[in-house]
Design brief:
It contains 18 helices and 27 strands. With about 700 residues, the protein is an alpha+beta fold. The protein folds into 3 domains: about 20-175, Aldehyde oxidase/xanthine dehydrogenase, molybdopterin binding domain (Aldehyde Oxidoreductase, domain 4); about 185-260 and about 320-395, Aldehyde Oxidoreductase, domain 4 (2-Layer Sandwich); about 265-310 and about 405-435 and about 470-705, Aldehyde oxidase/xanthine dehydrogenase, molybdopterin binding domain (Aldehyde Oxidoreductase, domain 4, 2-Layer Sandwich). The protein has a 7-stranded mixed sheet, with helices on both faces. Helix 1 runs parallel beside helix 2 (about 90-120) and helix 14 packs parallel to helix 18 (about 680-695). The two termini are about 50 Å apart.
C-alpha cells in the first residue's frame, strides 16, 4: 500500500475573482482571505494554528483570516499518517512544513504577479500585512493582484527558520467568538431542508442483532413517520428528536444478543491475572538479562496495576446527517476522519467515491471517539431506507453504553533493587490487554483507499487481524520506551480478547502504561529510601528533555519546600507522541476522599506555535486525566455496560478542580504532539502524592482508598 500526500496546485490556480494557489488558501479580489483547515477542529485549536502557520509565511495578520473546514479530499491527507485523519496529536507536527510552504508559495506568486505588472525584479519587492510594495512607492493588495497571481508559476520558496512574527506568539482562538455567541456549527446543529430526525433502538449488548420488532405503537404517535430495521437496530424516524425519542421508547424488539452476552468485568480481570501467571507473552523489549538478574536478586519489589475500560464521553453525543439518492450521497458529520466516513458510505451505498460528499463540521469533543464512523454509517443506512435526508442523534445513554472503549489493562511489574548503590538493576513489565488496531483496521484501510479493490482491502484486513493482536504497539506503548536508565529491562505483552469493542482514547496505551510505570518507579524510590524526584533525576541521566521538564515542574511546584499539614506532593514524567511532560500534583485526603489542590505541569513539545493553545491543551489534559484517575470506569455485567450518564461516569466538577499551572520548555526543534501527552502523567502523579501522604499504595483505577495496599 502506498500513501500519497498532495499539497495542491501552485500555478494556473483560481480565476478572475479568486486566487487559489493550493489546497489551503483562497484570496478573493475583495474581502477577507480564507484558509481551509485540513485537520478537524474538535476544541484543540487546530483552526487557529492552521491560520498562524499560513499567516507566518503569507505575511498577513492571522486574526484577519477566515477559516473553513475541509471535506473529504486527498489534498488534506495527514502527512504523518498518509490519509485524512486527525488524531495521534499529529495536527501541528504534520502541518508544520506543508502549511508554511502553502503560505510561502502564495506570497511569492503574488510578488511575481506584482513584478510582472511593474516590470521590476521580484527580489526588490516586499510583502507585509497583505500588501506587496516596491521601493519606488508602488503597492498593491493581495486582492488586487489575485487574478494576475493565478497565472504565474514559481519554484518552491525558502521558508523562514528564525525571526518569526506570528509563530510563538499568544493568539486568541479564531473560533472563540462563534462558540461564545452560539453561531458555531457543530454536527448536531446541522439543518438540511426536509430532513427528519432518527433515534435508533440498539441492543444493550454490542453483538446483538434484531430477531423481530413491533413498531406499531411508535407509528401511532404524533410526528413519527417511519420505523425501519437497519443493521444497527431499529430506527424510529420522526419530525423532531423529541418525537423520535418518544417513539423509540415504545418500540418492542426481540434480540439475539450474540457472543458478548456473557461479558463480565470481574471475570475479565480474573482472566487477565491468569494470563499473567501462565506465560510471559510476546517480548517487546529485551535489554540485558532481566529475567536472570531478577532471579538472582536479594531484594525485589513486585506489584500489579489495573486500568479499566473507559468511555470518551464527548460533550456532543454522536450524530450525523445524510442524504442518499440513487446516484449521490451527501453527509454532514462531526468526524475525525472525513476519509473514513466517505469510505464507509461508499461501502454501504456501493457508490463510487466521487459521488459522495462529506461536509466537515465542528466537533463537540473527539478524544478518539470520532475516529469510529458508526454514527455516520447509521445516518447513511437510515437515509437509504427512507429515501430522504435524515439526522441520526444519539442520547448520552446511547453514547455511554454502545460506544467503543479504552481497553482495560493489567500490568505486572517486578524490579531488582541494589540497596548498596541505591539503584534498580533489573525491571520487568508484563502487560495484558487487547489490540485496538486489530479492531479498527477495517475502517483505516477503507480510509486510506476508499475506492480501491474490495478484495485486496479485505485480504489486508484479514492478515492484519491475524497478526496484529500479538504486536499492536498501542497495547504497551510507553512501557517499551521507558526512558529510565536501567541496565536490564524486559517488557512483555499478552493479548486478551475481551469481546468488548475498543478504540483510541486520548493518549491511547500511554494512558495506562504510564500509570503503572510511574507508580512503580515511585515504589522503587521509596523502597530504596530515595526522594522520588531525585531518584528520577539519577535514572534520567542523559535524557535532557525529560530532565528539563522534571526540573522545571519540581522547581515551580516548590518540591523541596514544606507543605501544610495533611497535604503531600507526587511526581511523574512521561514521553508520548514525541513530547515530554512532567507533573507535580499536590493532594490531600478529606473524609476518606482524595482531593487535588494544585497541578504543576512542564512540557517540551518542540517549537510552540500558539503558547495559549498549548497551555489550554495541558489544562484540558489535567482535567481529563484527573477525571479518569478519580471517578471513571466502564464495567460490564451480562454483556451490558453498567454506566449510563455523567452521574455514574462523572467528570471532575468545577468545585473539585485544582489550580493548574503550566510551563513550557523553550525549544527550536520541530513541533511535536500536545493534545494527548498531558493525560498519562495525571493518575500516577496523584497516586504517588496519596502514597506520600498516607503510605497507602493505590494500584487500581479509579483511585480509591478502599482498594489501597
Amino acid at each position: 500500500m502506498v500513501g500519497v500526500w498532495v499539497l495542491g496546485r501552485e500555478s494556473g490556480a483560481g480565476n478572475a475573482e479568486l486566487f487559489a494557489p493550493n489546497a489551503f488558501i483562497r484570496i478573493p479580489k475583495t474581502g477577507p482571505i480564507r484558509v481551509v483547515v485540513g485537520r478537524v477542529e474538535m476544541g484543540q485549536g487546530t483552526a487557529t494554528s492552521t491560520a498562524m502557520l499560513i499567516a507566518e509565511e503569507l505575511e498577513v495578520d492571522p486574526s484577519t483570516l477566515e477559516v473553513e473546514l475541509a471535506g473529504a479530499d486527498r489534498a488534506y491527507s495527514n502527512s504523518k499518517l498518509n490519509f485524512q485523519l486527525t488524531g495521534g496529536s499529529t495536527s501541528v507536527a504534520s502541518d508544520w512544513e506543508p502549511l508554511r510552504h502553502a503560505g510561502a508559495s502564495a506570497r511569492e506568486m503574488l510578488k511575481e504577479a506584482a513584478a510582472l505588472r511593474w516590470n521590476v525584479p521580484r527580489g526588490e519587492l516586499t510583502a507585509k500585512h497583505g500588501v506587496i510594495t516596491h521601493a519606488s512607492g508602488k503597492s498593491a493588495t493581495y486582492g488586487e493582484l489575485a487574478s494576475d497571481a493565478a497565472k504565474v508559476t514559481i519554484r518552491s520558496p525558502d521558508l523562514k527558520t528564525k525571526d518569526f512574527t506570528v509563530i510563538g506568539k499568544p493568539m486568541q482562538r479564531l473560533d472563540a467568538v462563534s462558540k461564545t455567541n452560539g453561531s458555531a456549527n457543530f454536527g448536531i446543529d446541522v439543518q438540511v431542508p426536509g430532513a427528519l430526525v432518527a433515534v435508533i433502538v440498539r441492543c444493550p449488548v454490542h453483538t446483538g442483532t434484531v430477531k423481530s420488532f413491533d413498531g406499531s405503537a411508535a407509528l401511532a404517535l404524533p410526528g413519527v413517520k417511519h420505523v425501519v430495521s437497519v443493521p444497527q437496530g431499529v430506527a424510529v424516524v420522526a419530525e423532531t428528536y423529541w418525537h423520535a425519542r418518544q417513539g423509540a421508547n415504545v418500540v418492542t424488539v426481540e434480540w439475539d444478543e450474540g457472543s458478548a452476552a456473557s461479558v463480565d468485568s470481574v471475570e475479565l480481570r480474573t482472566a487477565h491475572r491468569a494470563l499473567l501467571t501462565k506465560a510471559n507473552g510476546k517480548r517487546r523489549r529485551d535489554d540485558g538479562k532481566a529475567d536472570d538478574t531478577l532471579k538472582a536478586a536479594t531484594k525485589k519489589l513486585e506489584a500489579e496495576y489495573f486500568a479499566p475500560f473507559l468511555a470518551h464521553a464527548t460533550l456532543e453525543p454522536q450524530n450525523a446527517t445524510a442524504h442518499v439518492t440513487a446516484d449521490r450521497c451527501e453527509i454532514w458529520a462531526p468526524t475525525q476522519s472525513p476519509a473514513m466516513a466517505l469510505a464507509l458510505a461508499a461501502r454501504i451505498t456501493h457508490l463510487p467515491p466521487e459521488k459522495i460528499v462529506v461536509h466537515q463540521t465542528l466537533l463537540g469533543g473527539g478524544f478518539g471517539r470520532r475516529l469510529g464512523q458508526d454514527y455516520v454509517g447509521e445516518a447513511v443506512e437510515v437515509s437509504r431506507a427512507i429515501g430522504g435526508p435524515v439526522k441520526v442523534v444519539w442520547s448520552r445513554e446511547d453514547d455511554m453504553r454502545r460506544s467503543f472503549y479504552r481497553p482495560a489493562a493489567t500490568h505486572a511489574l517486578s524490579a531488582a533493587l541494589d540497596e548498596t548503590r541505591g539503584v534498580v538493576t533489573a525491571w520487568k513489565h508484563h502487560v495484558v490487554s487487547q489490540s485496538i488496531f486489530a479492531q479498527v483496521l477495517d475502517s483505516f484501510v477503507g480510509g486510506v483507499s476508499p475506492g480501491g479493490p474490495e478484495k485486496l482491502k479485505q485480504k489486508t484486513v484479514s492478515l492484519g487481524q491475524k497478526y496484529l493482536p500479538a504486536v499492536d504497539p498501542t497495547s504497551y506503548e510507553g512501557a517499551d520506551s521507558m526512558a529510565y536508565g536501567i541496565e536490564h529491562v524486559a517488557v512483555d505483552f499478552t493479548f486478551h480478547d475481551s469481546n468488548v469493542p475498543t478504540g483510541f482514547w486520548r493518549s491511547v496505551g500511554h494512558s495506562h502504561t504510564a500509570f503503572a510505570t510511574e507508580s512503580f518507579i515511585d515504589e522503587c524510590a521509596w523502597g530504596l529510601g530515595k526522594d522520588p524526584a531525585e531518584f528520577r533525576r539519577t535514572l534520567l541521566a542523559g535524557k535532557s528533555r525529560h530532565l528539563a521538564c522534571l526540573e522545571l515542574a519540581t522547581k515551580q511546584a516548590g518540591w523541596a519546600s514544606p507543605l501544610d499539614a495533611g497535604r503531600a506532593r507526587g511526581v511523574a514524567v512521561h514521553e508520548s507522541f514525541g513530547s515530554v511532560v512532567a507533573c507535580v500534583v499536590e493532594a490531600s485526603v478529606e473524609a476518606d476522599a482524595i482531593r487535588v489542590h494544585r497541578v504543576v505541569m512542564a512540557s517540551d513539545c518542540g517549537r510552540v506555535i500558539n503558547p495559549d493553545g498549548v497551555r489550554a491543551q495541558l489544562e484540558s489534559a489535567a482535567i481529563f486525566g484527573l477525571s479518569a484517575a478519580l471517578k471513571q470506569r466502564i464495567t460490564f455485567e451480562k454483556g451490558r455496560v453498567q454506566q449510563s450518564n455523567f452521574h455514574d461516569f462523572a467528570p471532575l466538577r468545577m468545585s473539585e478542580s485544582p489550580r493548574i499551572e503550566t510551563h513550557l520548555v523553550p525549544s527550536e526543534a520541530e513541533p511535536t504532539g500536545i493534545g494527548e501527552p498531558g493525560v498519562p502523567v495525571m493518575a500516577p502523579a496523584l497516586a504517588n502524592a496519596v502514597y506520600a501522604l498516607t503510605k497507602k499504595r493505590l494500584r487500581t483505577l479509579p483511585l480509591s482508598l478502599d482498594e489501597a495496599t
